[in-house]
Specification:
alpha/beta, Ubiquitin-like (UB roll), 9 helices, 16% strand, elongated
Length: 320
């Protein structure tokens, strides 16, 4: 009699029928055909536990009975390649800056060139005991290299020792935590079932919230004023990026020029004025381009303030 398994992966459900004596290696091969997740990258969760058997273990020996529900974790080769590309870009930038610093010829179009290496995340650290640490590292690397985040860190002279993640099962009610005013910032990257990662834009918004805790510990008016300012600066930065090369400080101290695929991706992914569906706000016939930009920015800030009120209940920093 066949053993029928119900396997879920990223919201999709698959039903597989195999003999009880079939090996886990065969199960992995069948799942690779269905999901494009290579067998070497697959992790199976059964009854809340990670299967730790060898490929030669049979379904019967692994305790996989007829009707069992299994969760598949894992990324495709294409996804992992994209994540490696993001990490490689970050490492490439870091290497260039180190080499220029050694030669004493750091060339940055800013009145405070030393801030490039000072106001940064000094270390990124995924949780190695959770599934797909490579994916988590790529998300953290993307956040650390995000041009808008780097911009506000320079503006406010933020330093963060470690950028790491929160495990959903360890902190089920938290989305972010700032430890000792920037010693470490911890972010919830993963969905509750560990089967995927939360949207990048949401995680980045939590990061802005936690960066505000570098200055203010409680969620008082001082904190809210700074956090609103960070959100506005991120939005203005990306509006300027969308329009091309623009001076992003009032005194023209820093000029943003998209120069890499990573920055181009960030520019394309966050178009100011999009709602939940990403559709742009339609222009009014009687308003100038500058008036429309201001209206769109104000609408964005109202939405962010509402989301911030909800986020405060999921931030653990005030408790520390």
């Amino acid at each position: 009699m066949d053993t029928t398994l119900s396997v879920s992966h990223r919201g999709a459900a698959y039903s597989l029928s195999l003999l009880p004596e079939a090996t886990l290696a065969l199960l992995h091969a069948r799942l690779e055909e269905l999901t494009n997740v290579p067998a070497a990258h697959q992790k199976l969760l059964y009854k809340g536990r990670k299967a730790s058997h060898t490929g030669e273990t049979t379904l019967r020996e692994a305790g996989l009975k007829d009707g069992a529900k299994v969760t598949l974790l894992g990324a495709t080769d294409e996804e992992i390649g994209g994540m490696h590309k993001v990490e490689d870009e970050l490492h490439r930038k870091e290497h260039i800056m180190r080499e220029r610093e050694k030669r004493g010829t750091v060339k940055v179009r800013s009145t405070a060139s030393s801030s490039v290496n000072t106001y940064i995340f000094h270390k990124i650290e995924p949780l190695s005991h959770l599934p797909n640490p490579t994916t988590a590292r790529a998300v953290l690397a993307r956040l650390a290299a995000d041009p808008a985040i780097q911009h506000v860190m320079r503006l406010h002279e933020f330093r963060v020792g470690v950028l790491t993640e929160l495990a959903p099962h360890e902190h089920p009610n938290l989305l972010g935590l700032n430890v000792n005013a920037g010693e470490a910032i911890k972010l919830r990257l993963r969905t509750n079932d560990y089967d995927g990662f939360r949207p990048y834009s949401e995680v980045r918004r939590v990061l802005c919230h936690e960066l505000s805790h570098n200055v203010w510990g409680d969620h008082d008016n001082n904190f809210k004023e700074l956090n609103s300012k960070l959100n506005r600066e991120v939005a203005e930065f990306e509006r300027a990026a969308k329009e091309g090369t623009h001076s992003l400080l009032g005194d023209g101290a820093f000029t943003y020029e998209p120069s890499s695929e990573l920055e181009a991706e960030a520019r394309a992914a966050y178009v100011l004025g999009g709602g939940a569906s990403g559709a742009a706000t339609p222009p009014r016939p009687d308003e100038s381009p500058e008036e429309r930009r201001r209206r769109v920015l104000d609408a964005t800030m109202r939405r962010l303030r509402k989301e911030e009120e909800e986020l405060e209940h999921s931030c653990g920093t005030h408790a520390h």
